[in-house]
Amino acid sequence: MKPVIETRQLGRFYGEGDTLVRALHQVDLQIEPGEFTAIVGPSGSGKSTLLQLMGGLDNPDEGTVLLKEKAISEMSGRELSDFRRDHIGFIFQAYNLIPVLSAAENCEYIMLLQGIPAAERKARVYAMLEQVGLKGKEQRLPNQLSGGQQQRVAVARAMVSRPDIILADEPTANLDSQTGMDLLDMMHELNRQQGMTFVFSTHDPKIMERASRLIHIEDGRVIGEQRRDEG
Amino acid sequence: MLMLRLAFRNILRNKRRTVLTMLSMLGGYVLLVLSLSVQNGSYEQVIDFFTKDSTGHAQISEVGYQQRATLYKAVPASDAFYQQLTSLPLVSAAAPRIKSGALAYGETKSFPVQVVGVDAQKEAGLSFLAEKIKQGRYFNAQPNSDGYFEVMVGAAVARQLQVALGDELVLISQGADGSLANDLFSIVGLIGSTESLDARTVYLPLLAAQNFFAMPGEAHYWVVLAGNYRQSDELTAQLNQWLADRPELEAASWKVVSEEFYKTMQADIEGGYIFYYIIIFLVCIGVLNTVLMSVLERTGEFGVLKAIGTSPSRLFFLIIQETLLLAGLSCLFGLLAALPLNYWLASTGFALPEPMEISGVVMAHMKGQWDLAVFVEPALIVIGSVALIAVFPALKAARIVPVDAMRGL
Fold first, then answer.
1. Is residue B320 within 8 Å of B16, Cβ to Cβ?
2. What is the DSSP track for A25-50?
3. Where in this chain does the record put each ABC transporter domain (chain A) (predicted)?
4. Of A82, A94, A101, the CB nearest to B309
5. Quick one: pLDDT band at residue A229, thresholds 50, 70, 90?
6. For the whole model, what pTM was predicted?
7. Is the ipTM, as predicted for this complex, more than 0.90?
8. I need a labelling partner for B209 at 20 to 30 A (CA). Which of B16, B173, B260, B327 fits?
């Protein structure tokens, strides 16, 4: 099976000379379709940097990221944004919803960029929001929703455009324990039902318990990997 | 539609700032409308007056007369010519004139004057000659009971020669046939003031001028009016078409006949643009500040938008769209304010602190112009300028690197 994302000798440095910090160093990874992968490690280990590079939000200083066998570094700004739009869904730690758009509009936005007809957009948005447990809250603005509900909208936004992979950067970090658990269950269910690929950066043990694959990272290097049949 | 909603809600995020920015654009728009209205209105008044009083909207003369006016270049001044001329669609009035120089004598003094022979009846329906009479009356076309033709003289002529109403005036010049022209006239009217364009002019009835300059049945040119001075080019083209079978004659618009006046007016109009540039500059500074602040405040959000797949060009146009929306709404509200103000300005106008005299006619009121262009041009200027000024912040937003931008969130 061809990997959705592959990194080859990936490196990212900050600063220079004596102050050079290797945030990532020679990282080789392959993410297969349908995986529920967690990248785990202590704070500052390079988890978020790896996720940002995998999603094309940042440029590596060394090595290559291949998205569906295409190197990110070879893509123009326009190509890259189109690629992210069509193939990658992002879930951020701070939700990052557009504050002036309602829950439904936040989800609809990406499909608008994809040129999907209005009727289909609406149907998919309402179905997805129902799936994440937000039926009846479609027209609420982000500030009218709780943190957990906002993160559910973020999940719906990431999934509604049917990307090949969802990259989630510490998605439960700002949520209370129960809400985080519920959200995780929901994403796990979506992964099992729809075969959608998830990659998390996390140090949340609950995510680690459910992950089908754990990638341990420390000081910018992959130091170990565990695979499980069912997370 | 979602993008428009997004743009609209974005401009409503900081309502106070939006209102202040809109007020600056609205104020700029209203100021531009009123300034343009007054400028156009005043130039319209001056050009309308000048062309009616002096040059007409077009003139018909012998080929070369406009470049070098001589006594010997003449056009027919017959009734048949007049009938044909006034039957043309654009022609609303026409009158023949003779124009040359002479030496005028009063009781004891002499003074070089410009002699203008006009058809008393036709001229009264075309120019402001009758309205410019300060003393006395309009002359008769035929000689008086003593056999003298009546004349009206400019204020400078009357002052230099120390002549008054009822006095005699002697003119000496050269006839078109080479003879010595001299005759005695009776002064029945004093024209304008010493500042007037025709202060040094002596007006003669056309028949008197034809006799004096030995030009029977002829004139030097025909002054022709259309409905409006703006039709002068169209009128000139029509006259030249009509004159196609008379190659010795040609028509020229007032812009050619009085090229110096036309160029002066054009230069004056362009000079007025400086005021507009200042207004636009001030509006643009305010808008630039607002849009830049708005972009800086939303840097993180733009990072997210880019991260989830918004292309740089779409982000660029989102900023431009927000600015255009702001400018469009400002102009719309500005229009609501400018409509009644300009209506009053165009219909009633305002009294000038110092009445302005042009060629003996006093203009005490300044009126605006009620024209679609007066409302549309400033809107296009405001919208175009702020759209241009928004390019820089829009480019800044479009070039945002998602991961850097989102660090601030």
1. no
2. EEEEEEE-TT-EEEEE-STTSSHHHH
3. 5-230
4. A82
5. low
6. 0.75
7. no
8. B260
